[in-house]
Write a structure and sequence with these properties.
Length: 453
């Protein structure tokens, strides 16, 4: 199958040919026709399988035959969790849409907002944005959503992990009710499925890989060692194997900075990329890494989402992630678009539970290799037999609540509020409660006798 059989215009197919894209990937084969049909779509595929083109190509095709965009309006909105992913998607839109009478723009935080406001004044057909900056622009009346035809949530699971659910809900409420909704991600958690129930309507569900599976093109290894030996072991691996381009993952920003300084001290050119870095510094570091000017790029999970580096050969997990699904995203930076790659993890005994969670998620025990001189003083326990995931039992439906009438207390047995037909509750006798029984031992008074005759 070729791209010209999927319903794309000759201009778009020509742009793809310039990038040497001749055959669509499995996710593109299924997603492009579904999006072109105007239906809502939920698509899950491994990182590096062409998800971005799966929605940008049909959106370009659909918008090329429509009304012109008005000033400060947009026709398609693509939300991403990070600046790097937003920039990557924007680059794809520009590349695939060359020669089309369509405009696009990308907006995110960390840079001045005024140039973005000026760009939106003329109107933009396709806007790629991070949620926070988009809401800032809307509050300043820089963007109007009344013309939106398509909404895309890219890497939706990461957006929820980063706490964007409130911002996403705010944005959804501002959009026209009649629109096409597309959810694309490497994984779909239960939270994503819950969000989808309120967002998509009768969607086409696409999954070209088992849930949370790792790519077969990525060779994986674990190097057991002690925590304090990890920096030296990493320097040894880079030097011994002559790695010229390696992406390294740390859990924290400060940890990334410390590791970068260690690598520089060992004569390995390295830069860090994380949320505390300015957008200019992050863009410069990524450009130098792609151009081969530095050998190592040390990143956190949030900053690395969206990094697209052609034929990246090596990924190193200096520390295992707390969330097993993030491991899938990390190693998905290599082995992309059919190329092969290698992912190694430096694991100490304290991370054994994290390793078990990753192996259970991927349903695969990762091979281990030991290096002399870096043996663990605290041995890493052997992996257990992998237990398959069990389907969660459906929750029992809650009992219906008793109808509550105005003026009635929450308890049906509260004093003075017995159900109809029952006697009033007992209490102290008196004029405030004439229905209460007189339980005292006092003798009842005889009725007064009438006048004697």
């Amino acid at each position: 199958m070729s791209f010209d059989t999927l319903g794309l215009s000759p201009a778009i197919v020509k742009n793809l040919a310039r990038q040497n894209y001749q055959t669509p990937t499995p996710i593109q084969e299924q997603a492009i026709p579904a999006v072109l049909s105007g239906k809502d779509v939920m698509a899950a595929a491994q990182t590096g399988t062409g998800k971005t083109a799966g929605f940008t190509l049909p959106i370009l095709e659909r918008l090329s035959n429509g009304e012109r965009v008005k000033s400060n309006h947009i026709r398609a909105l693509i939300l991403t969790p990070t600046r790097e992913l937003a920039a990557q998607v924007a680059e794809s839109v520009h590349t695939y849409g060359t020669g089309l009478d369509l405009t696009s723009a990308v907006v995110f935080g960390g840079v001045k907002i005024n140039p973005q406001m000026m760009r939106l004044r003329q109107g933009v057909d396709i806007l790629i944005a991070t949620p926070g900056r988009l809401l800032d622009l809307h509050q300043q009346n820089a963007v109007n959503f009344s013309q939106v035809e398509v909404l895309v949530l890219d890497e939706a699971d990461r957006m929820l992990d980063m706490g964007f659910i409130r911002d996403i809900n705010k944005i959804i409420k501002l959009l026209p009710k009649t629109r096409q909704n597309l959810l694309f991600s490497a994984t779909f958690s239960e939270d994503i499925k819950s969000l989808a129930k309120t967002l998509v309507h009768n969607p086409v569900e696409i999954s070209v890989n088992p849930a949370n599976a790792t790519a077969v093109t990525v060779e994986q290894f674990v190097y057991p060692t002690d925590k304090n030996k990890k920096p030296k072991l990493l320097s040894y691996l880079i030097g011994h194997h002559n790695w010229q381009q390696v992406l390294i993952f740390c859990k924290t920003k400060h940890g990334a900075n410390r590791l970068t300084k260690h690598l520089e001290a060992d004569g390995i050119s390295a830069l860090a990329i994380h949320g505390n870095k300015s957008q200019g510094a992050r863009t410069k570091a990524l450009a130098q890494f792609k151009e081969g000017k530095i050998r190592a790029l040390v990143a956190t999970d949030i900053a690395a989402r969206g990094l697209d580096i052609d034929q990246l050969p090596q990924v190193v997990n200096f520390e295992l992630p707390h969330v097993a699904e993030d491991y899938v995203h990390r190693i998905g930076r290599t082995g992309r678009a059919g190329s092969t790659g290698q992912a190694v993890s430096l694991v100490c005994a304290d991370e054994f539970k994290l390793l078990v969670a990753i192996e259970r998620l991927s349903q695969k025990i990762i091979p281990r290799q030991e290096i002399e001189g870096f043996d663990a003083a605290n041995p890493l326990p052997k992996s257990h037999d992998i237990r398959p995931f069990k389907a969660k039992k459906p929750k029992k439906p809650k009992a219906p609540k008793v109808e509550h009438h105005d003026g009635q207390r929450s308890s049906e047995l509260a004093s003075g509020h017995k159900p109809p037909g029952s006697r009033r509750s007992q209490g102290k006798p008196g004029k405030d409660n004439p229905y209460a029984k007189n339980t005292s031992n006092q003798r009842r008074r005889k009725p007064a006798s009438g006048p004697k005759s």
